[in-house]
């Protein structure tokens, strides 16, 4: 999702300013909508802030855009190879995300992430745009979505409306998973998450 020469800070700065301006929002109004301080937003737009998962997800929710609209520089090659050592990690309180790709087809946008929930940690989200899909690769993941707790092991899958408050936790050791976020083109709100 990013070119090797672009940092997460630079990409987020340009995309955040573009999306905020496109919607005619002041920094103050975006601060209210996202629950992020105006000074922090100013730093993010000037590429001097340190974005976290929580920040990016809050901005996605407030602007009602896919996360990749904030983080994407678009690959143009027919074959996309993403090397782990060349991909910046976006970290939060309990999760490290590596953006792998953004796919657009048939009126749907899908973002693919390598996700690691750190051992003994929890990652809380107030919600964000799109539908969230997670497939556990290794470890035991505890997911709580809108008050419903589910334990997931290797090969298990969960999907839900990303706008719902949710938490991922790894109480027994690190968890590796594939996270896919999907949105309708034009960022229309999804009515029913797949079952």
Please provide a written account of the structure.
The chain has 5 helices and 10 strands. The protein is α+β, with helices and mostly antiparallel strands. It has 2 domains: 8-71, 434 Repressor (Amino-terminal Domain) (Orthogonal Bundle); 84-187, Jelly Rolls. The strands form 2 sheets. Strands 1-2-3-10-5-8 form a 6-stranded antiparallel beta sheet. Strands 4-9-6-7 form a 4-stranded antiparallel beta sheet. A hairpin with a 2-residue loop joins strand 6 and strand 7. It is globular and about 45 Å long. The two termini are 27 Å apart. The relative contact order is 0.16. Residues 1-5 and 187-195 have low confidence and may be disordered.
How are the elements arranged and paired?
Blueprint: H1 8-22, H2 27-34, H3 38-45, H4 53-63, H5 67-71, E1 90-91, E2 95-105, E3 108-117, E4 122-125, E5 131-138, E6 141-145, E7 148-152, E8 157-161, E9 166-169, E10 175-184
Antiparallel strand pairs: 1-2, 2-3, 3-10, 4-9, 5-8, 5-10, 6-7, 6-9
Pfam family, one: Cupin_2
InterPro entries: Cro/C1-type_HTH, Cupin_2, Lambda_DNA-bd_dom_sf, RmlC-like_jellyroll, RmlC_Cupin_sf, TransReg_Diox_bact_type
Organism: Streptomyces sulfonofaciens
How much helicity do the residues have?
Answer: 10-25%
How much of the sequence lies in strands comes to 25-35%
Mean pLDDT, nearest integer? 87
Under CATH, the topology of the largest domain is which?
A: Jelly Rolls
Number of domains: 2
What gyration radius follows from the Cα positions, in whole Å?
A: 16 Å
Which structural class is indicated by helix and strand composition?
alpha+beta
Strand order of the largest sheet: 1-2-3-10-5-8
**How many DSSP helices?**
5
Identify the CATH class of the largest domain.
Answer: Mainly Beta
Pick out the low-confidence regions: 1-5, 187-195
Strand elements, count = 10
Largest sheet entry: 6 strands, antiparallel
Task: Please provide the ordered H/E string of secondary-structure elements.
Answer: HHHHHEEEEEEEEEE
- CATH superfamily grouping of the largest domain: Jelly Rolls
Morphology: globular
């Amino acid at each position: 999702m990013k070119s090797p020469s672009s940092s997460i800070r630079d990409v987020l700065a340009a995309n955040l300013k573009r999306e905020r301006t496109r919607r005619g929002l002041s920094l103050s109004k975006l601060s209210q909508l996202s629950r992020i301080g105006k000074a922090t937003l100013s730093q993010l737009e000037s590429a001097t802030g340190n974005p976290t998962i929580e920040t990016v997800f809050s901005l996605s929710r407030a602007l009602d855009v896919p996360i990749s609209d904030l983080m994407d520089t678009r690959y143009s090659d027919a074959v996309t190879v993403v090397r782990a050592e060349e991909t910046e990690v976006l970290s939060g309180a309990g999760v490290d995300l590596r953006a792998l790709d953004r796919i657009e087809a048939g009126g749907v946008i899908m973002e693919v992430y390598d996700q690691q929930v750190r051992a003994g940690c929890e990652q809380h989200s107030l919600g964000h745009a799109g539908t969230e899909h997670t497939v556990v690769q290794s470890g035991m993941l505890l997911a709580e979505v809108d008050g419903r707790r589910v334990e997931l092991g290797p090969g298990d899958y969960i999907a839900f409306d990303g706008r719902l408050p949710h938490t991922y936790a790894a109480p027994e050791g690190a968890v590796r998973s594939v996270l896919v976020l999907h949105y309708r083109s034009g960022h229309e709100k999804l009515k029913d998450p797949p079952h």
